[in-house]
Amino acid sequence: MNLANKLTVLRMMLVPIFLIFIALNSPTGTVIATIIFILASITDKLDGYIARSRNQITNFGKFMDPLADKLLVTSALITLVERDVIFGWVAMIIIAREFAVSGLRTLAASDGLVIAASNWGKAKTVIQIVAIIVGLVYLSYPLHWLKIITDISIGVSVIITLISGFDYFIKNKNVIKTNK
Length: 180
Fold this sequence. Notes:
Blueprint: H1 3-23, H2 27-53, H3 59-82, H4 88-110, H5 119-140, H6 144-171, H7 173-177
Helix pairs in contact: 1-2, 1-3, 2-3, 2-5, 3-4, 3-5, 4-6, 5-6
């Protein structure tokens, strides 16, 4: 269990803590939840950097890191839907793309292939995290202009999410063809 993997586990452990504070449905709870979300998001960037720079990429990290990311993002999206910050269909597009790409990666892994994160996928992650943070800030400070920024950032996030999903499937169509 190297440092990168410990950070991944920490991110997973922060998800229920995030949910507890957001469930308080108070300005203070939401601010604390937002800080927890930001810290958890930072661990995503940090664990990948540490694993690559120290040449400590493990099977555990390859599997658990994306899972930790999906748990964090999904929990925040569902919270934003529950609080009427975003529409349910928006969250479903993002979550469905995550399941679809995970399925594609699993299919590739069954053939001994690894589908690395693409630039679109990396951009998608950053934009989703920024959009979620803006949405969480809006929960604490429900200002009209902040709602507009939330809506725009979520809209951009959905577009980049769709583009990155199509990109993965187009670039990896051979994985689907070989598994008929």
